[in-house]
Specification:
The chain has 823 residues and is of the alpha/beta class. It is built from 32 helices and 16 strands. The strands form 4 sheets. A 6-stranded mixed β-sheet has the order 9-8-10-14-15-16, with helices on both faces. It has a 5-stranded mixed β-sheet with strand order 5-4-3-6-7. The chain is globular and about 85 Å long.
Length: 823
């Protein structure tokens, strides 16, 4: 099909008096794999996708069809937003061309098949596994033909494209936990065949089929089957002797220089797959040698040149000595460095392991967006969190507690940046004009580092661009540190954090996942660390939350005590203050710490507790508040559905307004999102008695439900919080709750609270579940009454909770949901 298309381009060239139109030139370059040139010419000479048709000639009958070649170029350059926009234009225009004619039904099906096939690739690259799997299923559905069996592959896609599509779908399925479906996809690849009886499978087709199976089995962790697929794939190209050599050595001997020297039969990605298979199979030394050969490949070509590590004169810490082919694969780059660290640690070389872990973190932190790309292509989805966690663990083992704490903080900063990666606009926090310009420059450099041509002929230097990136990051951190904290990772100074703590305060920072959980205790006097039991922590938190909803039972006490024993008892000997700042991590964001139970008392009976999303955020709170008005209350906004009415919250809002001098009250249709955006900056305290929606899958879409009007839709999202300017000391969210059906990684909670802190408040009171109206009303009245006589919000909330516990109901369901985030 592609040969016919290129022939059509050539014929058109001849018929148009040797003068190609820009669209044909772009299409030809895209087809020939000159993706950067194709995109550059399109940008310079055409500019917008809707103008594509204006450059058609009378011979260009399928002018919109060729646009898909440009879409693929954007995909290859990892410009996913442009690739999606391009595909959307291509699909719409192609379907217009086909029209409603019955004979066009087959064309419609292949357009929709290709549209979903390419979108599945994009979603997999972006880590959106539900959409990647959904669009894969659609592509499969539209590719099916009732006239042929399910194994027949449409000629326009080919066995190679179809196998890769199946592998993408299976990798997404594995990430979603659909292991049986992934296995079925892998087994189905074997039967793929050309739809025409006049065509046979090529050797390349068979190789790609087996390489695709290897991707799937690698994603499933079935290293034996992955190995079998890779070796079967390679055997087609080589003599019997070479195939036997591959079978007996996993193909590693020729990569590491053992035995007879031969050219590496695998391309870069396949070589990395072999190393991953070897590592997963316990062949650590062999895997390490292959990783090192990939790390130090000396040429730009896609085939590694083997160099024995002990003979290298390169400094492994210098990025300039690393393979250009690897530098172009950031998703594999950080993972390969991490793999080398894991192997070095397992082989008893902790010093080398530390170096590799730190290099891996440096690669991760140079990126503005999540690094999912490239690695997903080989069936291995990297886990950045694991890099930080193993680094923190190793530093704790070595007694380097300050460094370990700093990397834990950097990990949380990286997670926030990933949550906000799709945002380009943030509200600057001063009148300086430079921060938006610096942010735009930062995004452009980041994009260039992913897509620019760094070949020798280009004259462009990747190291120079990286230097410019670091310089721009430093400028942003200097001119606008709070904005910089949302888009760059900067290491906090432990001594500075200690100075921000009061003498009678201890900060407890939890960090870890899986079976490993660490707790750092930071105070004016020093820093300590403890290793805790993190096994099945999310499940334990979920069970306790379920128990707490049974407000007529003491069943919660058992699990509240178990979590106390796991999380706090090991720390008791080092806790010497009553005031605690807790920085949760992962599932602990959903844990009501005040409800932990030692057998006789709750944690609230022993400590004054507040929460922070990270220790570093202390630098951005305790701001001076100059708003002229004391309190704005928005209660029971009109949401257009009687089922969503909150009469109890409305009564609570009226009661608080009547007791607080100078309070402004907005109810029903007056409690609009527009009021918050336009007038919120005028109030020291904002009290929301409204519903909240929290979305763990798309944290930026979480938000507050308010009344809508002509200016706003009534949904104040987390995304919008980062564009909002407030001047508040306190935000109270009394009727909002996370209300999660599952415990996730906490990004939704962090994004939400961090958004309000960035918008301009020192603290937030929120609830972890919806409490009954009467208890909430009593707690809020007590809180504001106590706050009127004291500026200590943490103590005022504790006293209000204790009042409900004493006078209303001792069960934690009624008082433990509320927590103070901030100072």
């Amino acid at each position: 099909m592609m040969k016919k298309r290129l022939l059509l381009i050539s014929v058109t060239f001849a018929l148009s008096a040797c003068s190609l139109t820009p669209t044909l030139e772009v299409s030809e370059k895209a087809y020939l794999g000159k993706h950067r040139e194709a995109v550059d010419q399109f940008t310079q000479e055409i500019g917008e996708f809707q103008y594509w048709a204006e450059y058609r000639t009378k011979y260009s009958h399928n002018y919109w069809g060729d646009l898909s070649l440009l879409c693929n170029s954007y995909l290859m350059l990892q410009n996913f937003s442009q690739a999606k926009e391009c595909l959307s234009h291509w699909k719409i225009e192609m379907l217009k061309q086909v029209g409603d004619a019955k004979e066009g039904e087959e064309v419609k099906k292949w357009v929709l098949a290709d549209y979903n096939r390419l979108n599945s690739t994009i979603y997999l690259e972006l880590g959106n596994y539900p959409e990647a799997y959904r669009t894969y299923k659609l592509a499969r559905e539209y590719s099916a033909s009732p006239k042929v069996d399910n194994c027949a592959v449409p000629l326009r896609i080919g066995i190679e494209g179809f196998s890769r599509m199946d592998a993408n779908g299976a990798v997404a399925a594995v990430q979603l936990g659909y292991r049986d479906q992934a296995i079925a996809i892998a087994e189905g690849i074997d039967c793929l065949k050309p739809s025409s009886i006049f065509l046979n499978e090529s050797a390349k087709d068979i190789k790609v089929k087996n390489a695709s199976k290897a991707r799937i089995y690698l994603a499933l962790g079935d290293y034996n089957k992955a190995k079998q697929a890779m070796l079967f794939s390679q055997g087609l190209y080589d003599t019997f002797a070479r195939s036997m050599d591959a079978v007996t050595t996993l193909g590693l001997s020729e990569l590491i220089g053992a035995g007879e020297e031969r050219a590496n039969p695998f391309n870069f990605d396949e070589t990395y797959m072999l190393a991953k298979i070897a590592q997963g199979s316990g062949q650590l030394e062999e895997a390490e040698k292959v990783y090192l050969s990939l790390l130090y490949t000396a040429e730009q070509s896609d085939t590694p040149i083997v160099q024995v590590y002990n003979n290298l004169i390169f400094d492994p810490k210098k990025e300039t000595n690393h393979s250009p082919a690897l530098l172009n694969r950031q998703g594999i780059y950080y993972q390969l460095l991490y793999d080398l660290g894991v192997i070095a640690e397992q082989l008893g070389r902790p010093g080398e392991a530390l170096d590799f872990y730190q290099q891996s973190v440096e690669v991760i932190e140079q990126q503005r967006a999540t690094i999912n790309t490239e690695a997903s292509k080989i069936g291995f989805i990297g886990n950045k969190e694991a890099v930080y966690q193993d680094l923190v663990s190793l530093l704790i083992k070595q007694g380097k507690l300050e460094q370990a704490f700093i990397y834990a903080e950097r990990s949380k900063a990286r997670a926030l940046i990933d949550t906000l990666a799709s945002k380009q606009d943030f509200s600057p926090k001063n009148v300086d004009e430079r921060p938006p310009m610096l942010l735009a420059q930062l995004n452009k450099i980041d994009s260039d580092l992913k897509t620019a041509d760094y070949s020798e002929a280009s004259g462009r230097s990747r190291s120079a661009d990286r230097g410019l990136l670091r310089k721009t990051q430093q400028q942003l951190q200097t001119t606008q540190p709070e904005l910089a904290s949302l888009v760059t990772v900067s290491a906090p100074e432990v001594t500075e954090l200690q100075q921000r703590l009061a003498g009678d305060e201890t900060l407890i920072e939890f960090y870890g996942s899986g079976t490993q959980l660490f707790a750092f205790l930071l105070s004016r006097s020093g820093i300590k660390a403890a290793t805790l039991n993190g096994e099945d922590l999310a499940a334990a938190v979920s069970v306790l939350r379920d128990d707490l909803q049974k407000n007529d039972s003491n069943a919660y006490q058992h699990n509240a005590n178990l979590l106390y024993q796991r999380l706090f008892k090991p720390l008791k000997g080092d806790l010497h203050t009553e005031k605690l700042i807790i920085v949760p991590h992962g599932p602990l964001h959903y844990l009501p710490f005040t409800a932990l139970y030692n057998g006789s008392d709750f944690l609230i009976d022993q400590y004054d507790i507040s929460i922070l999303p990270s220790a570093s955020v202390m630098a951005f709170i305790n701001k001076e508040v100059t708003a002229p008005h004391p309190l704005l209350i928005l209660g029971n906004p009109e949401l257009g559905d009687p089922k969503l009415a909150l009469p109890g919250a409305e009564q609570e809002a009226k009661t608080i307004a009547s007791q607080q001098r100078g309070a402004s009250l907005l109810l029903g249709s007056d409690a609009t999102e527009t009021q918050v955006k336009q007038n919120g900056v005028l109030f020291k305290t904002l009290h929301f008695a409204s519903h909240g929606i929290f979305d763990p899958e798309q944290p930026l879409s979480s938000g507050l439900l308010l009344a809508k009007d002509q200016s706003n839709d009534g949904m104040l999202t987390v995304r919008e919080l980062y564009e909002l300017n407030l001047n508040a000391d306190l935000i109270t969210l009394s009727a909002c709750e996370t209300g999660l059906g599952k415990i996730s990684n906490g990004d939704d909670v962090v994004g939400f609270t961090r958004g309000f802190l960035y918008a301009g408040t020192n603290s937030i009171i929120s609830s972890l579940w919806k409490v009954d109206d009467q208890a909430t009303s009593q707690l809020m009245q007590h809180f504001y009454a106590k706050l009127a006589n004291s500026s200590d919000k943490r103590l005022a909330l504790k006293q209000a909770q204790l009042a409900v516990k004493t006078d209303y109901n001792r069960h934690p369901y009624y008082w433990a949901a509320f927590q103070l985030t901030g100072r």
